[in-house]
Amino acid sequence: MEENKIDIKAFLDADEKKDLLRLLTAGSVDDGKSTLIGRLLFDSKKLYEDQLQALTRDSARVGNAGAGQIDYALLLDGLKAEREEGITIDVAYRYFSTNQRKFIIADTPGHEQYTRNMITGGSTANLAIILVDARKGVITQTRRHTFLVSLLGIKHIVLAVNKMDLVDFDKAVFDKIKKEYLELTTQLGIEDVTCFPISAKQGDNVVEKSERTPWFEGTSLLEFLETVPIHRDRNMTNFRYPVQYVLRPDLDFRGFCGKIASGVVRKGDELVALPSMKRSRVKSIVTYEGELEEAFCPQSVTITLEDEIDISRGEMLVRPDDVPNIGRNFETMLVWMDEELMDRGKQFFLKHNTNTTRATIDSIEYRVDVNTMERLEGKDFKLNEIGCVRITTAKTLFFDAYKDNKATGAFILIDPITNNTSAVGMILRPLEGDETNQIELPTLDLKKLGIAAEHYDAIERAVAELGRQGIEVKVIK
Question: Which of 243, 314, 247 is nearest to 466 (CA)?
Answer without folding.
Answer: 314
